[in-house]
TrEMBL record:
<protein>
    <submittedName>
        <fullName>Alpha/beta hydrolase</fullName>
    </submittedName>
</protein>
<dbReference type="InterPro" id="IPR050266">
    <property type="entry name" value="AB_hydrolase_sf"/>
</dbReference>
<dbReference type="InterPro" id="IPR000073">
    <property type="entry name" value="AB_hydrolase_1"/>
</dbReference>
<dbReference type="Pfam" id="PF00561">
    <property type="entry name" value="Abhydrolase_1"/>
</dbReference>
<dbReference type="InterPro" id="IPR029058">
    <property type="entry name" value="AB_hydrolase_fold"/>
</dbReference>
<keyword id="KW-0378">Hydrolase</keyword>
<feature type="domain" description="AB hydrolase-1">
    <location>
        <begin position="27"/>
        <end position="126"/>
    </location>
</feature>
<dbReference type="GO" id="GO:0016020">
    <property type="term" value="C:membrane"/>
</dbReference>
<dbReference type="GO" id="GO:0016787">
    <property type="term" value="F:hydrolase activity"/>
</dbReference>
Amino acid sequence: MIEKKIQSKRGTVYYWTNENNNENELAIVFCHGLTADHTLFDKQVQHLANDYKLISWDIPLHGKSRPYQDFSFANVNKELLEILKQEKVEKTVLVGQSAGGYIAQAFINEYQEKVIGFVGVGTTPFGNSYYKKSELFWIKHYSSIAMLYPYSLYCKAGAKAVTITDESRENMHNALVKLGKKDMLKAASSVYGEFLKVEEEVDFNCPVLLTYGEYDNTGYVKKYNDCWADKTGFPLNVIKNASHNANYDNYKEFNQLLVSFMHTIK
């Protein structure tokens, strides 16, 4: 994967891509979750790089895409659109893990014509109908609660809470340590603040695959995905031996699901 970047008045955004022959002008775009970075999808990159055009990026306020001003889903959409233009990509399959699923859904809302598939990994849907006010309490107050913890303890506990394998835990821990407490709090308040503004569901005009790890105890991820699948009819796969970062915990099973999904799109 080759490191590249785009720049705007808001900041520099970094992404990584391969030189796969992209005859169909199609790319799989990986959107990592809150406080993670592009390396969350290293196992997918290793498995798919010979067959597909891939783009993994550090979402603004994460990884190398710092500092960044005026964070909003609309501005993040602009950055992703610019990446696609720079790479001459016309159509995408978006893979969003956790809050990366919010980034993907926001992009689909605004640039639906660019997206021909969406894969959720332990993410949750846009739309007020899915959420009780009491269940949103921890999202509204996440930064305030996280601020109370010594950061070294937070990094260890946070990584352990979303993974079950040592390799996956190390990946998440490294991302948190590199981010630092100040930028972790800023990312959390910015991303969750935008999510809480969204009231309407996404009108998906593309194939959708929902997944979560069988040991994912993050918030109400399981409940929301079950409701999402029941309401929409979207296929839902529970990934064995995996927690919130299911695509890393059990990357073999997730990679198989993703490849099968891509074959249905082709």
